[in-house]
Amino acid sequence: MEIFNWSYAAEVFPTIFRAMFVTLGITLASFAVALVLGLILTLLRRSPVKIIAYLTYGFIEFVRGTPVLVQLFFVYFAWPLVPVIGFEMSAMTAGISTLGIHYSTYLSEIYRSGIESVDQGQWEASRALNFSKAKTWTKIILPQAVPPVIPMLGNYLIVLFKETPLLMAISVNEMLMTARNLGSQVFSFVEVYTIVGLLFLLLSYPSSLFVGYMERRMNTRYMRKAKVQKMKKEDVIS
Amino acid sequence: MRGATVTVSLLLASGALAFILAFIAGLSRVSENKAVRVLTMIYVEFFRGTSLLVQLFWIFFVLPQLFDIRLDPFTAGVVTLGLNYAAYASEIVRGAILAVPDGQTEAAIALNMSKFQRMRYIILPQALRTMLPGFGNISIELLKGTSLVSLITLQDMMYLAQNLRAADYSQSLQVFGILLILYFVLALPLIVLSRYLERRASRGVASA
Predict the structure, then answer these.
(1) Is the dihedral of CA A214, A160, A45, B137 positive or negative?
(2) What percent of chain B has pLDDT over 70?
(3) What is the ipTM of this complex?
């Protein structure tokens, strides 16, 4: 048998390429969920009601401490069995919401670092100007807190993208699942898995270069080095 | 849950492999030899750029076909997890080494230390303190990563839980609920440890 069958590789490439868009769609959808939910978690954590703040903190730590795969199975298989609030959902919905929830806990940490790096004087100024609480957040704090952390959010978008193959475990037809189905028809996985690997590399490496570039630009623009960079060092790892 | 022993031994084995490789890769990234530097960079970017699960499948399914290297699921899991997280950890090593002030290197040169001595006695001890919190975080990620090996049929906690569920669908909630808690209990010491190291690292060095 040939080691790497080029004609077969060329034959399956279009199918895998199409599946790539499913993967990208999942990535964007769950990132959108994570962006919104992350912000909500951040705000809840800063809530003046102690119980809410602690519960949120506990939730964040718990979600960050357990594997996505287990959460995925929990959401897809076990959630429908939860009394009262449980309901069934499609594999796709389950996958998007699990990834969204998981990464919202990471994103909430990033928002937090952004919010904390906003100068204390800004809070005082908005109080002095008699801004309401909602106005303080939407007009003063968030517009300053979010732009500097955009590159870090971008990092997580790439991480999230690389996590999407997990969804194959609950049989969502993303790239890796498609590849496996194709491969099992001819009992040869060399071509299909190699193509998937290369596509991932092709998509994620340029975007990580771009994020790195943005990061350097933002750093020179905002000069908020100390705090933001410290957070970055800790978060790059995942 | 016998699966816990598999998960923990997988964690330890791939953790050890990852940290050794991370040191080697991290040191080569700051090497004076350009070829060494570029080669490790390719390795690191490659493993950081592709998905862990894809790597796992590649090593487990493709290697036997391509080069006739057959690995049992456990070895394949250890190798993939080790290689993958070593790539991330090597960035921490590199960052920490570069974070040691230049003056330290210059002082070591002034004291007529050899390159090896300089690294061993001056740079690394200082860099290590900066690295530790990062390593703590990596080990949490690694623990979470181990759940993926269930997909190449290694019988870890995750895999056994799936079997239990297959035996009785109505038990799904209990099975996965317990599984979540088990993983969290395993992660908890790591979380506490890395928080502690973080606090210590930011306290001790800052004044220097």
Answers:
(1) negative
(2) 87
(3) 0.71
